[in-house]
Amino acid sequence: ISEEASAAPEPTGPSIEGLENVDGLSVTREGKVFKIALNRPKKFNALTLEMYQGIQKALEVSNNDKSTSITVITANGSYYCAGNDLTNFKAAAGGTKEQIADMANTAKVIMKDYVNAYINHEKPLIALINGPAVGIAVTVLGMFDYVIATDKASFHTPFAPLGQSPEGVSSYTFPLIMGSLRASEMLLVCKKISAQTAKDYGLVNEVVPDAEFQSHAQKTVEAFSQLPPETLRINKKLLRSLHKEKLLEVNNIEADQICERWQSKECHQAIAAFMTKGAKK
Amino acid sequence: ISEEASAAPEPTGPSIEGLENVDGLSVTREGKVFKIALNRPKKFNALTLEMYQGIQKALEVSNNDKSTSITVITANGSYYCAGNDLTNFKAAAGGTKEQIADMANTAKVIMKDYVNAYINHEKPLIALINGPAVGIAVTVLGMFDYVIATDKASFHTPFAPLGQSPEGVSSYTFPLIMGSLRASEMLLVCKKISAQTAKDYGLVNEVVPDAEFQSHAQKTVEAFSQLPPETLRINKKLLRSLHKEKLLEVNNIEADQICERWQSKECHQAIAAFMTKGAKK
Amino acid sequence: ISEEASAAPEPTGPSIEGLENVDGLSVTREGKVFKIALNRPKKFNALTLEMYQGIQKALEVSNNDKSTSITVITANGSYYCAGNDLTNFKAAAGGTKEQIADMANTAKVIMKDYVNAYINHEKPLIALINGPAVGIAVTVLGMFDYVIATDKASFHTPFAPLGQSPEGVSSYTFPLIMGSLRASEMLLVCKKISAQTAKDYGLVNEVVPDAEFQSHAQKTVEAFSQLPPETLRINKKLLRSLHKEKLLEVNNIEADQICERWQSKECHQAIAAFMTKGAKK
Fold first, then answer.
1. pLDDT of A188 over the 60 cut
2. Which chain B residues contact residue A187 at CB under 8 A?
3. 3-state secondary structure of C244
4. C245: alpha, beta or left, given left = phi > 0 and alpha = psi -120 to 50?
């Protein structure tokens, strides 16, 4: 879900051992904070297949990085993330049934590994939501430990209108976080919600006026990063391990389901309509 | 829990194949909406045994109805539903122990099948709560996908004062939706809550001023019904299947428990006191 | 976490059969209410090992007390409870590795039995939070059925800063009550929350202005105690039994974990820093 925007990507920081540079990502260490920033603002930070794999790798490297105690994900520009870049599917638009199946299966494996990297992450995981969040950028929030959002953020998971199904283990985490009725509101009938509603639903911990967002977020993250690191890992594991097996299982189920959806008529019709609408603008 | 009210039942719509007319119910198709309306306003839409079975059958017919994409439950008159009609138990009031046991077991099977029809429902299920809701009309809300309530609605499950136990799989769904403390507030110490509190607790998605309730509800339902129907079913199944086995199991446990309660001294004393109070008015 | 405060302990009530007097506790019957009051206000009602065991025993006696229908826990003075009295660990401060391990294992068993007494409690359990609550006084709230708090209360579980891990089965109950993100806010990054926020998070049912707190709490508790007692037990069991096995299992896991933490370097450094800070005041 992406169009041209004005902001230029910020320069990426110094490279971190074990990580290659990936277009659209900036991975840095800031004090005891391991920071992953989406850096494709012109495309509203929509996720390419390379970005999925880059974030996955960064989460794994952070796991083993003893010099930092927490992991932060945020984005550059006025958007947080437009979700899965639908041009990931463009190549297959005119393809044969087999070509579409191949593409769907490739994307499925990449997305499943991406989500598993969140399930397996061992440090406190903080999201700084600097603007609108869409699709898989919203669904994976159920695996974070603390989310700060600007009051300009919004949260939207338009699966049904696109003929797709929920991922990011949201079919497991969202009902636990907000209850089944609010989960269906977001994941089944797909209403867009504001930052304040996301806070009321327990998907966001703090909403901050946009002008103060960056400074408040940085101060908060800095404070969290000073907590005893071994204790943080152990306590995160204690909270997570009760659900881990189920999360891995649900990720498999969701991945199989969305792979089937990507090959369905309802999905193709919806994406074609979306592309046409975009082209007409 | 019913007394005489002023509203007359609305005429039932054209009959739907596979469904017989049931006193107190109106089942219609409106566009892509399969609509079940409680239609016994003089008795505050309290549920007779025939109405339980009629709704169960309507939910099953809707499951197989390809011409509609969502199912809506609402009611005619100023009440949503007064819950289980206590006159269902009147016949047994002066009965022998065996007669009471027979009646309790009959009602148990009907209620269990009724609740299973919700667990097994495959379309998005929307409730339009047009007024106060009591007992099983409240507890089954945990199986809905979206609930809109007028600001004149209230929600009350007075099980303990009547010597009864929670049903509608609420002992499973309510703690997941609102947390154990709020669930105990409603189901154990039995406080009545307002529409706004029900929204705060995640049991209601939207509260609408009474004057705008019908038009807003209709517009919302109409919009939901336009989503791709196959995707809706698949996504509902994804969200529901994680809990389905447990829901069926809990329904059995709750049904056995309430059947035992119906035969208990505390329940008989409470219902006798309730009937006496009603007769004195 | 205790310093000298001004309030004197209130006199304990008449003794209850099967219960010995314990310093810092007052256990009484008031009508149909079985009431346990922390009574060590000069130490902010911090829990000594004797108080853990006294409360455990009182909960067990209440279980078998047919003359009361509900159990209430509250405290005397302006604090609710400062949590685990860190002087419980003072003796081991200069000890050998073996002495520390002995102390940790003793405390672990006492704490585990204490928490199991909540898991196994059969009556509706009401907390009247008359002031700030800290640590295990907060975490066990997930096993209560109704919590009333003064607006002067606050809720804080500073595990990470003290190098410790969550207990009171909070790693299971808190994510279910408030969702994983709010649970991590309290249990992982350890933010202190107000009474109103605790209500928003579903950890408290009612917040009452301090001037009206005692009279409102007493009236509410009195009303609950009039409900049919057998029905209350049965309905509590129905709600609890779905989670009981898991709660007992999680209590074991948490107890093992905190016992390990108590012997860790991060915990010793944190407690030493805390004690030094206290001594300097």
1. yes
2. 235, 239
3. helix
4. alpha
Instruction: Give the residue among A58, A3, A53 at the shortest CA–CA distance from A26.
Output: A58
A181–B173 CB contact, under 8 Å:
no
Chain C neighbors (3+ CB pairs < 8 Å):
A, B
What 8-state DSSP symbol labels residue B121? -
Q: Quick one: average pLDDT of A180-200?
A: 98
What is the tens place of the pLDDT at every residue in B77-126? 999 999 999 777 766 667 888 999 999 999 999 999 999 999 999 999 99
Hey, what amino acid is at C102?
D
List Cβ neighbours of B96 (8 Å cut-off, separation of 6 or more). none
Confidence at residue C4, expressed as pLDDT on a 0 to 100 scale? 46
d(CA B129, CA A4): 44
ipTM of the complex: 0.94
Average pLDDT rounded to a whole number, residues C130-145:
98
CB B81 within 8 A of CB B45: yes
Rg of chain C (C-alpha set): 18
Which residues, other chains included, contact C38 with Cβ-Cβ below 8 Å and sequence gap of 6+?
A: C24, C25, C45, C47, C51, C73, C74, C75, C76, C80, C81
Predicted pLDDT at C276: 79
Question: Rounded mean pLDDT of B128-135?
Answer: 98
Residue A143, number of CB atoms within 10 A of its CB: 24
Cβ–Cβ under 8 Å, residues B139 and B127? no
Contact of C47 with C81, CB cutoff 8 Å: yes
Residues 6+ apart with CB under 8 A from A169: A115, A119, A139, A140, A142, A143, A247, A250, A251, A254
What is the nearest CA distance from C35 to chain A, expressed in angstroms?
32
pLDDT of B281 higher than 50 = no
Are the C-beta atoms of B158 and B136 separated by less than 8 Å? no
Q: Cα dist. C132→B9, B62, C45 in Å?
A: 55, 53, 10
- What does the alpha-carbon distance between residue A28 and residue A37 come to, in Å, rounded to a whole number? 8
- What was the pLDDT predicted at C178? 98
Share the mean pLDDT of chain B: 92
Beta bridge partners of B51: none
pLDDT tier at B14, thresholds 50, 70, 90: low
Tell me: pLDDT of B189 over 80: yes
Structure confidence by residue, pLDDT tens digits, C150-207: 999 999 999 999 999 999 999 999 999 999 999 999 999 999 999 999 999 999 999 9
C-beta atoms of B165 and C228 within 8 A: no
Per-residue pLDDT tens over the stretch A110-127: 999 999 999 999 999 999
DSSP structure string for A83-104: -B-GGGGGGGTT--HHHHHHHH
How many C-beta neighbours within 10 Å does residue A61 have? Answer: 17
Q: Please, what is the angle between helix B265-280 and helix C229-262, to 10°?
A: 130
Mean pLDDT of C87-101: 79
The C-alpha atoms of residue A130 and residue A127 are separated, in whole angstroms, by 9
Please state the rounded mean pLDDT for residues C115-141.
98
Q: Is residue A52 within 8 Å of A109, Cβ to Cβ?
A: no
Nearest to C78 by CA among C6, C24, C138: C6
Chain A residues in contact with B236 (beta carbon < 8 A): 184, 188
Tokens 């007359």 sit on residue: B8
CA nearest C127 in B: which residue?
A: B181
Question: What is the C-alpha to C-alpha distance for residues B85 and A132, in angstroms, rounded to an integer?
Answer: 49
Mean pLDDT of A82-109: 85
Report the distance separating Cα B8 and Cα B39, nearest Å.
Answer: 9
| Number of other residues whose CB lies within 10 A of the CB of residue A59 | 23
Interface test with A, best of B123, B128, B220, B238 (most A CBs within 10 A): B238
Instruction: Dig out the tokens for C116 from the structure.
Output: 């199991």
Neighbours of A86 (CB within 10 A): 17
